[in-house]
Amino acid sequence: MKQRNTWQAPWSYREGWIITGGLAILGIVWQVFLPAFKAELPRWPGNLILGLFFTGIIVSLYWFFPKSSLVKWLSSVPAAVTSASFYCGLAILMGIIPQQQASPSALINLTGLNQLTISWIFALANLYFLSSLGLATLKRLIPFKKKNIGYILNHLGLWLALTTAALGSSDLQRLHMNCYEGQPEWRATNQQGQVVELPIAIELLDFKIEEYAPKLTLIDNQTGKIAVTDIKNPYFSITDTPFQLGDYTIEMELYLPQAGLIGDRFERVNEIGSPPAAKLIVTNTVNQQKSTGWVSSGSFRQQPYAFTLNERHSLVMLPPEAQKYQSDIRIITQEGQQLSTTLEVNKPFKLGGWKLYQLSYDSEKGKWSTLSVIELVRDPWIPAVYLGIFMLLAGSLFLFREGTTKRKKGENHGLD
Prior knowledge:
about 35% helix, 3 domains, 4-stranded antiparallel β-sheet
Protein backbone atom coordinates (compact mmCIF):
# COMPACT_ATOMS: atom_id res chain seq x y z
CA MET A 1 0.00 0.00 0.00
CA LYS A 2 1.44 3.33 -1.05
CA GLN A 3 2.09 5.69 1.85
CA ARG A 4 0.41 9.08 1.64
CA ASN A 5 2.71 12.10 1.62
CA THR A 6 2.21 15.02 4.00
CA TRP A 7 -0.09 17.70 2.55
CA GLN A 8 -1.39 15.24 -0.01
CA ALA A 9 -5.20 15.42 -0.22
CA PRO A 10 -7.24 14.41 1.63
CA TRP A 11 -5.57 15.80 4.73
CA SER A 12 -5.68 13.82 7.96
CA TYR A 13 -4.64 14.18 11.61
CA ARG A 14 -1.00 14.66 10.65
CA GLU A 15 -1.75 17.91 8.85
CA GLY A 16 -4.20 18.87 11.60
CA TRP A 17 -1.53 18.72 14.30
CA ILE A 18 0.93 20.58 12.07
CA ILE A 19 -1.65 23.34 11.53
CA THR A 20 -2.34 23.47 15.27
CA GLY A 21 1.38 23.75 16.07
CA GLY A 22 1.85 26.40 13.41
CA LEU A 23 -1.02 28.50 14.74
CA ALA A 24 0.35 28.18 18.29
CA ILE A 25 3.82 29.34 17.20
CA LEU A 26 2.33 32.17 15.12
CA GLY A 27 0.23 33.34 18.07
CA ILE A 28 3.23 33.35 20.42
CA VAL A 29 5.40 35.20 17.87
CA TRP A 30 2.74 37.88 17.40
CA GLN A 31 2.37 38.18 21.17
CA VAL A 32 6.12 38.57 21.74
CA PHE A 33 6.88 40.97 18.89
CA LEU A 34 3.60 42.92 18.88
CA PRO A 35 2.89 43.30 22.62
CA ALA A 36 1.09 46.62 22.16
CA PHE A 37 -1.50 45.06 19.83
CA LYS A 38 -3.69 42.90 22.02
CA ALA A 39 -6.22 40.58 20.43
CA GLU A 40 -9.16 42.51 21.86
CA LEU A 41 -12.49 42.61 20.08
CA PRO A 42 -14.25 45.95 19.46
CA ARG A 43 -17.17 46.98 21.60
CA TRP A 44 -20.77 47.36 20.44
CA PRO A 45 -21.66 47.72 17.58
CA GLY A 46 -18.23 46.78 16.23
CA ASN A 47 -18.38 43.29 17.76
CA LEU A 48 -21.81 42.68 16.19
CA ILE A 49 -20.51 43.74 12.75
CA LEU A 50 -17.47 41.49 13.21
CA GLY A 51 -19.70 38.57 14.23
CA LEU A 52 -21.97 39.01 11.21
CA PHE A 53 -18.92 39.30 8.94
CA PHE A 54 -17.42 36.08 10.33
CA THR A 55 -20.75 34.26 9.99
CA GLY A 56 -21.13 35.54 6.44
CA ILE A 57 -17.68 34.21 5.47
CA ILE A 58 -18.45 30.75 6.91
CA VAL A 59 -21.81 30.55 5.12
CA SER A 60 -20.38 31.90 1.86
CA LEU A 61 -17.51 29.42 1.87
CA TYR A 62 -19.88 26.50 2.28
CA TRP A 63 -22.51 27.83 -0.12
CA PHE A 64 -20.24 28.81 -3.00
CA PHE A 65 -17.23 26.50 -2.49
CA PRO A 66 -18.58 23.29 -0.90
CA LYS A 67 -16.16 21.08 -2.85
CA SER A 68 -13.04 23.14 -2.15
CA SER A 69 -10.15 21.54 -0.24
CA LEU A 70 -10.36 24.19 2.50
CA VAL A 71 -14.07 23.59 3.20
CA LYS A 72 -13.67 19.81 3.04
CA TRP A 73 -10.76 19.96 5.46
CA LEU A 74 -12.34 22.33 8.01
CA SER A 75 -15.56 20.27 8.06
CA SER A 76 -13.67 16.99 8.52
CA VAL A 77 -13.27 14.96 11.71
CA PRO A 78 -9.45 15.48 11.94
CA ALA A 79 -9.93 19.25 11.80
CA ALA A 80 -12.65 19.05 14.48
CA VAL A 81 -10.48 16.93 16.81
CA THR A 82 -7.29 18.98 16.43
CA SER A 83 -9.02 22.36 16.69
CA ALA A 84 -11.02 21.23 19.75
CA SER A 85 -7.83 19.91 21.39
CA PHE A 86 -6.09 23.23 20.74
CA TYR A 87 -9.00 25.19 22.21
CA CYS A 88 -9.45 22.90 25.24
CA GLY A 89 -5.71 22.87 25.92
CA LEU A 90 -5.70 26.66 26.26
CA ALA A 91 -8.81 26.47 28.47
CA ILE A 92 -6.91 24.09 30.78
CA LEU A 93 -3.98 26.51 30.87
CA MET A 94 -6.39 29.24 32.02
CA GLY A 95 -7.23 27.10 35.02
CA ILE A 96 -3.58 26.40 35.82
CA ILE A 97 -2.00 29.82 35.23
CA PRO A 98 -3.51 32.75 37.20
CA GLN A 99 -5.08 35.16 34.71
CA GLN A 100 -5.24 38.96 34.53
CA GLN A 101 -2.24 39.43 36.84
CA ALA A 102 1.53 39.59 36.53
CA SER A 103 3.27 36.24 36.79
CA PRO A 104 6.61 35.65 38.56
CA SER A 105 7.71 33.93 35.34
CA ALA A 106 9.04 36.36 32.72
CA LEU A 107 8.32 33.77 30.00
CA ILE A 108 4.62 33.57 30.90
CA ASN A 109 4.33 37.37 30.92
CA LEU A 110 6.15 37.63 27.57
CA THR A 111 4.00 35.03 25.80
CA GLY A 112 0.75 36.35 27.27
CA LEU A 113 -0.23 33.05 28.92
CA ASN A 114 -1.39 35.03 31.98
CA GLN A 115 -3.84 36.98 29.78
CA LEU A 116 -5.00 34.27 27.42
CA THR A 117 -8.42 35.75 26.64
CA ILE A 118 -6.77 38.75 24.96
CA SER A 119 -3.78 36.87 23.51
CA TRP A 120 -3.18 36.12 19.85
CA ILE A 121 -2.75 32.39 20.45
CA PHE A 122 -6.24 32.20 21.95
CA ALA A 123 -7.69 34.32 19.12
CA LEU A 124 -6.23 31.93 16.52
CA ALA A 125 -7.44 28.87 18.46
CA ASN A 126 -10.92 30.41 18.60
CA LEU A 127 -10.89 31.16 14.87
CA TYR A 128 -9.73 27.65 13.97
CA PHE A 129 -12.23 25.86 16.24
CA LEU A 130 -15.26 28.02 15.41
CA SER A 131 -14.56 27.80 11.67
CA SER A 132 -14.36 24.02 11.84
CA LEU A 133 -17.44 23.77 14.06
CA GLY A 134 -19.44 26.15 11.86
CA LEU A 135 -18.67 24.36 8.61
CA ALA A 136 -19.31 20.92 10.17
CA THR A 137 -22.72 22.19 11.31
CA LEU A 138 -23.57 23.55 7.85
CA LYS A 139 -22.57 20.20 6.35
CA ARG A 140 -25.45 18.57 8.27
CA LEU A 141 -27.80 21.54 7.98
CA ILE A 142 -27.69 21.84 4.16
CA PRO A 143 -29.54 19.96 2.84
CA PHE A 144 -31.78 19.64 5.90
CA LYS A 145 -32.74 16.16 7.07
CA LYS A 146 -34.92 15.36 10.03
CA LYS A 147 -32.52 12.73 11.34
CA ASN A 148 -29.83 15.43 11.77
CA ILE A 149 -31.88 17.62 14.14
CA GLY A 150 -30.02 16.44 17.26
CA TYR A 151 -26.61 16.95 15.69
CA ILE A 152 -27.56 20.38 14.36
CA LEU A 153 -28.98 21.60 17.68
CA ASN A 154 -25.97 20.27 19.56
CA HIS A 155 -23.28 21.75 17.32
CA LEU A 156 -25.09 24.97 16.40
CA GLY A 157 -25.80 25.60 20.08
CA LEU A 158 -22.14 25.14 20.98
CA TRP A 159 -21.08 27.41 18.11
CA LEU A 160 -23.58 30.11 19.15
CA ALA A 161 -22.58 29.95 22.84
CA LEU A 162 -18.84 30.19 22.16
CA THR A 163 -19.13 32.83 19.43
CA THR A 164 -21.41 35.16 21.39
CA ALA A 165 -19.33 34.68 24.55
CA ALA A 166 -16.22 35.74 22.64
CA LEU A 167 -17.93 38.69 20.95
CA GLY A 168 -19.59 39.80 24.19
CA SER A 169 -16.37 39.74 26.23
CA SER A 170 -15.61 43.32 25.14
CA ASP A 171 -19.02 44.53 26.37
CA LEU A 172 -18.84 42.73 29.72
CA GLN A 173 -18.53 45.18 32.61
CA ARG A 174 -17.54 44.02 36.09
CA LEU A 175 -17.29 46.92 38.50
CA HIS A 176 -16.71 47.33 42.23
CA MET A 177 -18.39 50.12 44.21
CA ASN A 178 -17.49 51.14 47.76
CA CYS A 179 -20.68 52.27 49.49
CA TYR A 180 -20.58 54.02 52.88
CA GLU A 181 -23.60 54.52 55.10
CA GLY A 182 -25.45 57.73 54.33
CA GLN A 183 -23.31 58.63 51.30
CA PRO A 184 -24.85 58.10 47.82
CA GLU A 185 -22.24 56.77 45.40
CA TRP A 186 -22.38 56.68 41.57
CA ARG A 187 -18.74 55.93 40.82
CA ALA A 188 -17.28 52.44 40.53
CA THR A 189 -13.91 50.94 39.64
CA ASN A 190 -13.30 48.46 36.82
CA GLN A 191 -10.74 45.65 36.79
CA GLN A 192 -8.09 47.99 35.38
CA GLY A 193 -8.53 50.37 38.32
CA GLN A 194 -10.27 53.03 36.22
CA VAL A 195 -13.14 55.05 37.69
CA VAL A 196 -16.45 54.63 35.83
CA GLU A 197 -19.46 56.92 36.37
CA LEU A 198 -22.77 55.03 36.35
CA PRO A 199 -26.31 56.10 35.42
CA ILE A 200 -27.44 55.06 38.92
CA ALA A 201 -26.42 56.01 42.46
CA ILE A 202 -26.42 53.62 45.41
CA GLU A 203 -26.79 54.66 49.04
CA LEU A 204 -26.01 52.24 51.86
CA LEU A 205 -28.77 52.51 54.47
CA ASP A 206 -27.59 49.79 56.83
CA PHE A 207 -25.07 46.95 56.88
CA LYS A 208 -25.81 43.85 58.98
CA ILE A 209 -23.81 40.77 59.89
CA GLU A 210 -24.87 37.58 61.63
CA GLU A 211 -21.86 35.87 63.21
CA TYR A 212 -21.04 32.40 64.40
CA ALA A 213 -20.11 32.00 68.05
CA PRO A 214 -16.36 32.65 68.51
CA LYS A 215 -13.95 29.71 68.74
CA LEU A 216 -11.29 28.87 71.30
CA THR A 217 -7.95 27.15 70.85
CA LEU A 218 -4.80 26.39 72.83
CA ILE A 219 -1.51 28.00 71.81
CA ASP A 220 2.13 27.55 72.75
CA ASN A 221 3.39 30.64 74.59
CA GLN A 222 6.89 30.31 73.13
CA THR A 223 6.03 29.92 69.45
CA GLY A 224 2.52 31.38 69.29
CA LYS A 225 1.41 28.33 67.27
CA ILE A 226 -1.43 25.88 67.93
CA ALA A 227 -0.35 23.61 70.79
CA VAL A 228 -2.74 20.72 70.05
CA THR A 229 -1.70 18.84 66.92
CA ASP A 230 -3.06 15.34 67.62
CA ILE A 231 -6.67 16.15 66.68
CA LYS A 232 -8.13 17.06 63.28
CA ASN A 233 -9.81 20.30 64.41
CA PRO A 234 -8.14 22.14 67.33
CA TYR A 235 -10.79 24.91 67.29
CA PHE A 236 -13.91 24.62 69.46
CA SER A 237 -16.91 26.92 69.50
CA ILE A 238 -17.58 28.67 72.78
CA THR A 239 -21.04 27.09 72.73
CA ASP A 240 -19.53 23.56 72.69
CA THR A 241 -18.22 23.73 76.25
CA PRO A 242 -17.28 21.67 78.11
CA PHE A 243 -14.64 20.19 75.78
CA GLN A 244 -11.13 18.80 75.97
CA LEU A 245 -8.06 20.56 74.53
CA GLY A 246 -4.87 18.66 75.18
CA ASP A 247 -4.51 18.16 78.94
CA TYR A 248 -7.21 20.73 79.74
CA THR A 249 -10.97 20.54 80.19
CA ILE A 250 -12.59 23.87 79.37
CA GLU A 251 -15.94 24.98 80.78
CA MET A 252 -17.69 28.32 80.30
CA GLU A 253 -18.91 30.21 83.34
CA LEU A 254 -20.07 33.40 81.59
CA TYR A 255 -20.26 34.64 78.02
CA LEU A 256 -20.64 38.31 77.01
CA PRO A 257 -21.36 38.98 73.29
CA GLN A 258 -20.14 42.59 73.70
CA ALA A 259 -17.77 43.41 76.51
CA GLY A 260 -15.23 45.93 77.75
CA LEU A 261 -12.15 45.34 79.89
CA ILE A 262 -12.34 46.97 83.31
CA GLY A 263 -9.29 46.22 85.41
CA ASP A 264 -8.76 42.47 85.21
CA ARG A 265 -12.33 41.56 84.29
CA PHE A 266 -14.83 42.15 81.50
CA GLU A 267 -18.21 43.81 81.84
CA ARG A 268 -21.15 43.92 79.44
CA VAL A 269 -21.14 47.09 77.32
CA ASN A 270 -22.98 48.27 74.23
CA GLU A 271 -20.43 50.35 72.36
CA ILE A 272 -19.04 50.19 68.83
CA GLY A 273 -16.03 47.91 68.73
CA SER A 274 -16.87 45.99 71.92
CA PRO A 275 -15.69 42.39 71.29
CA PRO A 276 -17.06 39.16 72.78
CA ALA A 277 -15.50 37.84 76.00
CA ALA A 278 -15.92 34.71 78.10
CA LYS A 279 -15.05 33.70 81.66
CA LEU A 280 -13.68 30.15 81.60
CA ILE A 281 -13.00 27.42 84.15
CA VAL A 282 -10.05 25.25 83.10
CA THR A 283 -9.15 21.92 84.74
CA ASN A 284 -5.73 20.37 84.21
CA THR A 285 -6.52 16.66 83.81
CA VAL A 286 -2.95 15.70 84.81
CA ASN A 287 -2.89 17.28 88.31
CA GLN A 288 -6.62 18.22 88.63
CA GLN A 289 -5.79 21.86 89.29
CA LYS A 290 -8.49 24.38 88.36
CA SER A 291 -8.06 27.97 87.25
CA THR A 292 -10.47 30.71 86.22
CA GLY A 293 -9.83 33.51 83.77
CA TRP A 294 -11.09 35.70 80.95
CA VAL A 295 -10.50 35.46 77.22
CA SER A 296 -11.53 37.87 74.44
CA SER A 297 -11.09 37.99 70.68
CA GLY A 298 -10.43 41.72 70.62
CA SER A 299 -11.56 44.09 67.89
CA PHE A 300 -10.40 47.12 65.92
CA ARG A 301 -10.77 49.11 69.17
CA GLN A 302 -9.57 46.57 71.76
CA GLN A 303 -6.60 44.24 71.95
CA PRO A 304 -7.17 40.47 72.19
CA TYR A 305 -7.09 39.11 75.74
CA ALA A 306 -5.57 35.66 76.34
CA PHE A 307 -6.09 33.37 79.30
CA THR A 308 -2.58 32.35 80.41
CA LEU A 309 -2.81 28.86 81.92
CA ASN A 310 0.88 28.42 82.76
CA GLU A 311 4.33 29.12 81.32
CA ARG A 312 3.66 26.80 78.39
CA HIS A 313 0.06 27.33 77.30
CA SER A 314 -2.60 29.98 76.86
CA LEU A 315 -6.20 29.92 75.69
CA VAL A 316 -7.15 32.41 72.98
CA MET A 317 -10.43 33.38 71.34
CA LEU A 318 -10.60 33.83 67.58
CA PRO A 319 -12.63 36.68 66.06
CA PRO A 320 -16.19 35.54 65.23
CA GLU A 321 -16.66 34.42 61.62
CA ALA A 322 -19.42 35.93 59.49
CA GLN A 323 -22.37 33.58 58.98
CA LYS A 324 -24.42 35.93 56.84
CA TYR A 325 -24.10 39.56 55.83
CA GLN A 326 -26.34 41.88 53.88
CA SER A 327 -26.77 45.49 52.82
CA ASP A 328 -29.94 47.53 52.89
CA ILE A 329 -29.53 49.95 49.98
CA ARG A 330 -31.40 52.66 48.12
CA ILE A 331 -30.93 52.93 44.35
CA ILE A 332 -31.49 56.28 42.65
CA THR A 333 -31.84 56.41 38.85
CA GLN A 334 -31.10 59.35 36.56
CA GLU A 335 -34.84 59.92 36.22
CA GLY A 336 -35.12 60.38 39.99
CA GLN A 337 -36.76 57.02 40.65
CA GLN A 338 -35.85 55.46 44.01
CA LEU A 339 -35.78 51.75 44.76
CA SER A 340 -35.00 50.08 48.09
CA THR A 341 -33.75 46.51 48.35
CA THR A 342 -31.56 44.18 50.39
CA LEU A 343 -28.44 42.63 48.91
CA GLU A 344 -27.25 39.27 50.23
CA VAL A 345 -24.43 36.98 49.14
CA ASN A 346 -25.50 34.88 46.12
CA LYS A 347 -28.80 36.78 45.91
CA PRO A 348 -28.23 39.51 43.30
CA PHE A 349 -30.64 42.31 42.48
CA LYS A 350 -31.45 42.96 38.82
CA LEU A 351 -31.88 46.50 37.55
CA GLY A 352 -32.13 47.03 33.82
CA GLY A 353 -29.15 45.29 32.30
CA TRP A 354 -27.20 45.30 35.58
CA LYS A 355 -26.87 42.71 38.35
CA LEU A 356 -25.88 43.93 41.81
CA TYR A 357 -24.03 41.52 44.10
CA GLN A 358 -23.06 41.75 47.77
CA LEU A 359 -19.29 41.28 47.53
CA SER A 360 -17.53 42.20 50.79
CA TYR A 361 -17.17 44.72 53.60
CA ASP A 362 -14.58 46.19 55.97
CA SER A 363 -13.37 42.92 57.52
CA GLU A 364 -11.27 44.77 60.12
CA LYS A 365 -14.37 46.41 61.63
CA GLY A 366 -16.54 43.33 61.12
CA LYS A 367 -20.14 43.81 62.24
CA TRP A 368 -19.45 47.50 62.87
CA SER A 369 -18.48 48.06 59.24
CA THR A 370 -20.00 51.13 57.61
CA LEU A 371 -18.62 50.03 54.24
CA SER A 372 -20.25 47.60 51.85
CA VAL A 373 -18.49 46.59 48.64
CA ILE A 374 -20.99 45.95 45.85
CA GLU A 375 -20.19 44.31 42.54
CA LEU A 376 -22.07 45.47 39.45
CA VAL A 377 -22.08 43.17 36.42
CA ARG A 378 -23.46 43.95 32.97
CA ASP A 379 -23.30 41.36 30.17
CA PRO A 380 -25.71 42.24 27.33
CA TRP A 381 -24.71 39.16 25.32
CA ILE A 382 -25.61 36.64 28.00
CA PRO A 383 -29.11 35.86 26.59
CA ALA A 384 -27.51 34.72 23.32
CA VAL A 385 -25.01 32.58 25.26
CA TYR A 386 -27.84 30.99 27.26
CA LEU A 387 -29.76 30.33 24.03
CA GLY A 388 -26.76 28.46 22.66
CA ILE A 389 -26.43 26.42 25.87
CA PHE A 390 -30.12 25.48 25.80
CA MET A 391 -29.80 24.42 22.14
CA LEU A 392 -26.75 22.34 23.07
CA LEU A 393 -28.66 20.61 25.88
CA ALA A 394 -31.71 20.05 23.69
CA GLY A 395 -29.53 18.52 20.99
CA SER A 396 -27.81 16.25 23.53
CA LEU A 397 -31.19 15.03 24.82
CA PHE A 398 -32.38 14.47 21.25
CA LEU A 399 -29.26 12.43 20.41
CA PHE A 400 -29.60 10.44 23.63
CA ARG A 401 -33.23 9.64 22.86
CA GLU A 402 -32.38 8.71 19.27
CA GLY A 403 -29.60 6.40 20.44
CA THR A 404 -31.88 4.73 23.00
CA THR A 405 -34.55 4.16 20.33
CA LYS A 406 -32.04 2.59 17.94
CA ARG A 407 -30.72 0.31 20.68
CA LYS A 408 -34.22 -0.90 21.57
CA LYS A 409 -34.98 -1.57 17.91
CA GLY A 410 -31.78 -3.58 17.66
CA GLU A 411 -32.67 -5.62 20.76
CA ASN A 412 -36.18 -6.32 19.40
CA HIS A 413 -34.73 -7.34 16.06
CA GLY A 414 -32.45 -9.80 17.82
CA LEU A 415 -35.41 -11.43 19.58
CA ASP A 416 -37.40 -12.03 16.38
